[in-house]
Amino acid sequence: MNDKPLNQTSPDTAASLPLRGLAAVIFLAALFASTPRFVSAELLTPAWVELGPNGSSIARIVVNAPADCPSIQIDGTTQKMTLRQPQPPGFRPACELAIPAGARSATVNGQALVLPQADPTRILAFGDTGCRIKALAIQDCNDPDKWPFKEIASQAASEKAQLMIHVGDYLYRESPCPVLRQSFCGGSPEGDTWDAWNADFFAPAAKLLAAVPWVFTRGNHEDCTRSWRGWFYYLDPRPWNGLCEDYTKPYTITLGKFQLVMLDSSATEQSGLDEKDQVVDFTSQLLSLHPQNAWLVDHHPFWGFASAAFPIPPIPIDSQLEDAWNRANPTGYSLVLSGHVHLFEVVNMDGGRPPQLVVGDGGTSMAEPIRISLKGVAIKGQVVAGDETEQEFGYTLFTKSASGWDFVLKDRAGAVLESCQVITGGAASCKPTSGK
User: Fold this and answer.
1) Phi then psi for 74, rounded to 5 degrees?
2) Residue 145: inside a domain, yes or no?
3) What sign for the dihedral angle of Cα 270, 271, 276, 281?
4) Which of 105, 312, 338, 420 is the Cys-Cys partner for 301 at CB 3.0 to 4.6 Å?
5) Are 143 and 244 within one domain?
């Protein structure tokens, strides 16, 4: 057996190869030379674009070492991306650069970045995407039927959308894989580290990261007792000082006439702890905002339902957000977009509330289905006027219409399960197509 490494073929050996063998070597060399560098040891992810406050857009990428920060070409001008600091222990470094408003093109290592555009007409949304490994709740991370996030993200990347909204909860690999569940998750990383973030989010989301500008929402899995380091270092669009903040300030993303108001609800306590302080804080935040026909985006639903095993009826999520809304009585919102409940839910409330859409169906273990109508159920003095729910992994695609927005729930193969619309200033309505 010849023990010479395959990549050290001698000149004599190369000269003796048949012509077609030599051609194959040349072809493979050219193929590897043209492969995007984010699959190499230097660049660990594709570059992505994310949106932040005050019209900011940021290009980011994760690299193997600080010296690997690549250059970025913006409208023909080359600049070196800078290292995001401080870098937490156990994390690979991230490089970033602010993209000037009005930039027409940007490229990182040959990868063309998809830049944000005013008044987007096609928008993607989902959340709660990681593979759950915690205590006795073990999801089969090795079976795409049980954890289909990579398929969902890849299918969503084909939609040619202009914006992607993740409503929070990225990392679910919080515990070591149990000995008796090695076939489900053997060798899986865990905890708030680069390896776990890569396994749960960056690797499966790679195609979608490169395909569309992103808006990131902080979930309760990213609060100060869990995976906050990865959240602040990799995904939060603002500078940070290495410390965790329980409540970050809300901000507005404006793309032409389209507005998103981003609210950090990660510290919301459903157990009632610190309830009064949280109601006061969220009321103050809502009062500080003055949107115009905006979508309010956060992780916890303002008017959502947690399902329970049949025949127990669904339970309204008793969060402080509902009390804060009642106190602030905000205006200027046409939709509330959230996650947290691992279902697809459309909830219309009376009293002039905007419709609530829950899209917590991005990949983590599904919740029990809601088998009954929620119409007439009261939440904090308001009553559900109509609803639609679905227990199915997938993503939501919004398309701008003359009267508001049409949106569909699609499964991992792109098949439509629910067809819905929300009229500007009005309610949402859905027509299921899944035969339920």
Assistant:
1) -120, 115
2) yes
3) negative
4) 338
5) yes
